[in-house]
Amino acid sequence: MILQKSLPEAQHGAPGLPGVSPCTPDDWLRVDDAYAAQMAYRAELLAQQTAFVLYQSDEALEASGQVLEQALAILPGLGFEVGAAQVTCPDGRCVPIDRTAPLHCLGHLVQEDICILQKRGQEHVLTAAVLCFPANWRLAEKVERPLTGIHDPVNEYDDNIARRVQRLFDGVRVGRPLWRFNKLRYADPDLHQPRRREVGEDMPFIRSERQCILRLPETDAVVFTIHSFVVRG
Question: Contact, 189 vs 202, CB < 8 A?
Answer without folding.
Answer: no
